[in-house]
Amino acid sequence: MNDNQTINVTAQLDTTEIKNSLNQLEVSIKPIKLSVEVDQKGVSSVQTLINSLKNLNGVGKETQQTLGILSTKYQLFTTSATKVVTSINNISTAMSAFEKIGNKIYARFPQAA
Q: How far apart are CA 41 and CA 34, in angstroms?
């Protein structure tokens, strides 16, 4: 055989354990996702309050600075929360992909020299 030939190899992969692990992971993270989504909604009302306080007449410089810090913390939280939700959604997508994989995978490997 020369280096350009291939051998057909049938490999069996039992995806059941992988599917079960992903399913357990998905069940575990659903409450986290729900909690993060609820927190995002609750925190948006905090941002509204921060903006309202900033616009009040007579708000001192220190208060303005504090509100600016709160606003920055709010932005960091929402960015992190969005990343968490995106990661959780990606796990759910992987879970769906594994549901479509059968128990047999066929592959072609180059012939070893």
A: 11
Q: Report how many helices (DSSP H) and strands (DSSP E) the chain contains, helices first.
A: 2, 2
80 in a structural domain: yes
Calculate the dihedral angle through the C-alpha atoms of 55, 56, 59, 62, rounding to the nearest 10 degrees. Answer: -40
- Cβ atoms of 109 and 43 within 8 Å: the answer is no
- Provide the domain count of the chain: 1
Give the list of residues 6+ apart from residue 72 with CB closer than 8 angstroms, or none: none
Chain position carrying tokens 């306080």: 53
Residue range of the domain that includes 96: 38-113
Q: Write the pLDDT tens digit of every residue in 38-85.
A: 666 666 777 777 777 777 766 677 777 777 787 787 778 778 878 887
Tell me whether residue 66 is in a domain: yes
Model pTM score: 0.41
